[in-house]
Amino acid sequence: MTSAKQKIIESLLVQKELYGDELFRKTILTEPDLNVGKDFPNKVEKKISPSLKKIESLSVSNSSFGTDSTEKLTQYYKEICECLECPLGKTRNKFVFGVGDPNAKVMLVGEGPGADEDEQGIPFVGRAGQLLTKILEAISFKREEVYIANIVKCRPPGNRTPNPVEIETCIPYLHKQIEIIQPKLILCLGTTAAVSLLKRKESLGAMRNKVHQVGEIKVVVTYHPAALLRNPNWKKDCWADVQFFRKLYDEM
Ligand code: URA
Asked: Is 223 in the pocket of ligand 1 (CB under 6 A)?
C-alpha cells in the first residue's frame, strides 16, 4: 500500500473514532424513545425514519470536516489517546476523547466515562447519554451540533467519582479541547464537572442559576443526567437550567 493511501486510511479511522461510527449512530438515533418525563417536552414531534436521521446527522458533522479545528482536534487526539499518566489508563478499555462538532458553539462537559462509554470510546452513549440526547433535543439542539467531552477521559473502575489526582492529571486535556473548539457556551453536567472546570468548591445548588465565566466562555451548571435517572424529581429544575442555557445561546 502506498504511504498516501495508508495516511488516508489512518485518518479515516481516527475520524471514525472521534466523530462517531455506525454503532454510535445506531445506538443514539434509532433507539426507541426514552421516557424523559413530562418535564422535558419532546420538541421532535414528527417521526423521522432512522435512515433520514442518519443522513441528517452526517450532514451536520460533515460541515466541519477539513476545518482548522477538526485537524487540530484530530492531531491532539493522536497525541494523547495512549495516555498512561494516571492509573486509570491501565484499567480502561478505550480512551474517551470527545464527540461532536469541532466548531461547536456549545460544549457539554460530563464527569467521566462509564461502562458503555469505555466499551465504545464515545462519551454519553449509555442510559444517561440517551437522556442527555433527549434533553438536548428538548432545547432544539442536535447532538451532532454540540461537542461533548468529560473531565476525565478514562473510566474510573466501578464508575466511582474520579479522585483529585486523576482530575488534576486529566483536566489539561479538556482545557486544550476547549482552546481548540472555542465554544461560546459550556454546560457543566453535575458537581464534579462544575467544581473541576470552575475551580469552585460549592454545592451544585449554589452553582446553578448563574452565569459563570471561564475566560471569555460563559458556563452554566445543571444536574448530571445519571442523577436525573436516580432522582426524576430533579428533572424540573434541570429543565429550567437548560431553558436558561438555550436563552443565553439565543441571545449571543
Ligand atoms: N457520565 C459521564 O459523566 N460521562 C459519560 O461520558 C457518561 C456518563
From this structure: no
